[in-house]
């Protein structure tokens, strides 16, 4: 069982907002840098945002100023607040420890689907 459970996706219109949540467990915790990733059909899963153990954040250019990654280590949660959503943000969103991705450890949760209509 993968210790990552994503939720919060849905169908929204362009310009609206969603907040994604990721519940982590099974040894993943406050000592892990965490990332959010997105996958669309026919394309590889892509990095969207990350947050370090010191709460330093990084984003891809296309979401800067619109998305905010955060974490609540006491609750073992990682969040992705998405505002000003665009149709190109559509996809299945996953969270994962950065160290897993860097190690090529292909363990992913079920993801949460975000669909943004025009």
Short structural description:
By secondary structure, the protein is mainly β. Helices cover 4% and strands 47% of the residues.
Topology at a glance:
Layout: E1 4-7, E2 10-13, E3 18-24, E4 34-39, E5 46-51, E6 57-59, E7 67-72, E8 77-82, E9 91-97, H1 98-102, E10 112-117
Parallel strand pairs: 2-10
Antiparallel strand pairs: 1-3, 3-8, 4-5, 4-9, 5-6, 7-8, 9-10
Percentage of residues in helical conformation: under 10%
Averaged pLDDT: 96
Structural shape: globular
Tally of individual helices: 1
Report on the biggest sheet: 6 strands, mixed
**Total beta strand runs:** 10
The chain-level structural class is mainly beta
Order of helices and strands: EEEEEEEEEHE
Q: What order do the strands of the largest sheet run in, or round the barrel if closed? A: 2-10-9-4-5-6
Terminal CA distance reads: 36 Å
Our estimate of the beta-strand percent is over 45%
Radius of gyration: 13 Å
Low-pLDDT segments, ≥5 res? none
């Amino acid at each position: 069982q993968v210790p990552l459970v994503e939720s919060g996706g849905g169908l929204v219109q362009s310009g609206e907002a969603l907040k994604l949540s990721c519940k982590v467990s099974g040894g993943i915790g406050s000592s892990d840098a965490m990332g959010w990733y997105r996958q669309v059909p026919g394309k590889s899963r892509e990095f969207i945002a990350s947050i370090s153990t010191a709460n330093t954040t990084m984003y891809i250019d296309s979401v800067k100023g619109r998305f905010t990654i955060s974490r609540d280590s006491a609750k073992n949660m990682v969040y992705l607040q998405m505002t000003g959503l665009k149709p190109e943000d559509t996809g299945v969103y996953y969270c994962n420890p950065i160290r897993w991705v860097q190690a090529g450890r292909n363990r992913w949760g079920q993801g949460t689907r975000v669909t943004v209509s025009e």
